[in-house]
Amino acid sequence: MLKLNRKLFHALNKVNDCPDNLWFFKYKDLNYDTTLISYYENGGYYNPHIDDAYFTALTWFWKEPKSFKGGDLVFPDYDFKIELKQNYTILFPSNIKHAVEPIEIIENKDNYYGRFAMTQFVTYVKKPQNNSGN
Fold first, then answer.
1. CB atoms within 10 A of CB 20
2. Whole-angstrom Cα distance, residue 56 to residue 10?
3. Which of 27, 41, 45, 81 is the most buried (most CB within 10 A)?
4. How far apart are CA 41 and CA 45, in angstroms?
5. Cα–chain-centroid distance for residue 124?
6. Mean pLDDT of 44-58
7. Nearest C-alpha neighbor of 98 from the set 70, 123, 73, 61
8. With 60 as the cut, is the pLDDT of residue 111 above it?
9. Which residues contact 26 (CB under 8 A, 6 or more apart)?
10. Which domains does the chain have, with CATH numbers?
């Protein structure tokens, strides 16, 4: 999983090759990322919010056969929904408000038959300057 994570981070750093007039790729020199693994069971959801990063990447996965409904990604300010698909990744600017619709388990199975998500936050962090006088 971490090997794939690094591929995304390095691909995003190629934005330096894009024209400056493309608003989505105006962020240069991305140098920091974090990864969050989350799990949503019956009734689980995430309210509309923005992330504290430049880019957010979401990858969805679950145990097969799929035993839940819902859990889609929504962008409420645009009345736009992205239906979940197994092992798909979506990348978007982190400052676009987004949410996760509630999960409904349709077949009661053993543990962890809900929706998993790997969320990657990619940003720039200013490096501290060396003030030692050397």
1. 8
2. 14
3. 27
4. 9
5. 16
6. 93
7. 73
8. yes
9. 20
10. 2-12+40-123 (2.60.120.620)
